[in-house]
Design goal:
The structure holds two protein chains of two kinds. Chain A is of the alpha/beta class. Chain A has one domain (about 25-190): P-loop containing nucleotide triphosphate hydrolases (Rossmann fold, 3-Layer(aba) Sandwich). Helix content of chain A is about 35%, strand content about 20%. Chain A contains seven helices and seven strands, in the order αβαβββαβαβααβα. Chain A has helices at about 1-20, 40-50, 90-95, 110-125, 150-155, 160-165, 185-190, and strands at about 25-35, 65, 70, 75-80, 100-105, 135-140, 170-175. Chain B has a domain at about 15-100 and about 135-155: Annexin V, domain 1. In chain B, about 50% of the residues lie in helices and about 10% in strands. Chain B has helices spanning about 1-10, 20-25, 55-60, 80-90, 90-105, 110-115, 120-125, 135-140, 140-155; strands at about 15, 45, 50, 70, 75-80. In chain B, the strands form two sheets. Chain B has a three-stranded antiparallel beta sheet. Chain B has a two-stranded antiparallel ribbon with strand order 1-5. In chain B, strand 2 and strand 3 (about 50) form a beta hairpin. The longest helix of chain B has 15 residues, at about 90-105. The radius of gyration of chain B is 17 Å and the shape is globular. In chain B, about 35% of the residues are buried. Classes of the chains: A alpha/beta, B mainly alpha. Chain A: Keywords: Endoplasmic reticulum, ER-Golgi transport, Golgi apparatus, GTP-binding, Magnesium, Metal-binding, Nucleotide-binding, Protein transport, Transport.
């Protein structure tokens, strides 16, 4: 009982502080893109529940997650299917969002070209123009299989992407959804845009 | 425009023709998921040449694409080689191979005690298996060799009898 009232006093103090600093009420809407099996659904599940990861069945149609908090900002995200036949839907959801997460399976050498092609289409055709794009290199926990950031940057021609999207509007992060590592910095980066 | 570009960029990959799908679906065992009892599976692992249900394809995706590469028969495209693997593979063939080799590897005594144990479905449906239950069945040397055998057959090379 006592603990609870102490907790609530602190809580309201903190809330006041947050409001004073201008953080209160910040909200962001995300769209999560990438090839099938990059880890989009698993990432969102982890962000929403904070809990263990598990394997999910493939996503066939877009669905919106419940709200979750990261970096003291409330987010809501569109989880998009990554299969070829449903990628044409990506464009329609991008315009509603304040930031784009693009996941790449860093351990999948064979499909990097395909991922690069999709990324190039989004940026080159100005579908994501003006939006912050965070490229998340997932599955970096697979130490033997995962490619280095340098290699990936070279193969996806990251310099060109930066030039087209604007240097400040694109960034690249190494993450492991399985271990719960790396994506926090991506959210910190996105937070600055909101 | 977008769609056309995809087609030209990956000109070697095409969505599976209805005729090919028919052939693949008619292979022995392909009427039910390779890992559970679900009928009419529409997902596949092109690494093992097997058909899977939606749920089980999720488990395969969790293994990493170097172990099992999952595709949707309806939503993804396939290379000619991948289609070939699916046509010469099949659930029955894969499960029989894995089961036989698994049994052979067990010591004689244990083998006699567990004659009726069907490793290929219990491994994947056993809810007590921690983490990803498909790992037991597919992330091991026996399964690795089976993949190499399939690949060799598609490429018209002699089948390997052991891992390189």
């Amino acid at each position: 009982m006592i603990f609870q009232s102490i907790y609530e006093t602190w809580r309201s103090l903190l809330d006041t502080l947050w409001k004073a600093l201008g953080f209160e009420g910040k909200e962001g809407s995300l769209v999560v893109l990438g090839l099938d099996n990059a880890g989009k659904t698993t990432l969102l599940h982890r962000l929403r529940t904070g809990g263990d990861v598990r394997s999910f069945p493939p996503t066939d149609r877009p669905h919106q997650t419940e709200k979750f908090e990261s970096q003291n900002i409330k987010f809501q995200a569109w989880d998009m299917g990554g299969h070829e036949a449903v990628r044409h839907l990506w464009e329609d959801y991008v315009c509603e969002c304040s930031a784009v997460l693009f996941l790449i399976d860093a351990a999948d050498t064979k499909r990097l070209e395909e991922a690069s092609f999709e990324l190039d289409a989004l940026i080159g055709e100005k579908v994501v123009k003006g939006l912050p794009v965070a490229i998340l290199l997932n599955k970096c926990d697979l130490e033997e299989e995962a490619m280095s950031t340098t290699e990936i940057c070279k193969r996806i021609q990251y310099d060109d992407l930066r030039r087209m999207q604007g240097e400040d509007n694109i960034s690249i992060f190494r993450i492991s959804v399985l271990r719960g590592e790396g994506y926090q910095s991506a959210f910190r980066w996105i937070a600055d845009f909101l | 425009i977008h769609k056309q570009q995809i087609m030209t960029s990956t000109s070697t990959a095409t969505s599976m023709l209805r005729d090919d799908q028919k052939i693949v679906k008619s292979l022995e065992g392909n009427n039910i998921c390779a890992d559970c009892e679900q009928t009419n599976p529409t997902w596949c692992s092109v690494s093992f040449g097997i058909l899977l249900c939606l749920e089980c394809s999720g488990k395969h995706r969790g293994l990493g694409t170097h172990i099992s590469f999952v595709r949707s028969l309806d939503m993804d495209s396939f290379s000619a080689k991948q289609i070939q693997v699916l046509k010469i593979g099949g659930n029955k063939q894969c499960n029989s191979y894995l089961q036989d080799q698994h049994t052979q590897q067990q010591p004689q005594q244990q083998r006699e005690n567990t004659t009726t144990d069907d490793f290929t479905t219990t491994a994947c449906t056993n809810p007590t298996t921690k983490n990803n239950s498909a790992r037991v069945k597919y992330d091991n040397n026996i399964a690795e060799l089976y993949k190499l055998k399939l690949k060799a057959r598609v490429e018209g090379k002699p089948e390997p009898t052991e891992l390189p």
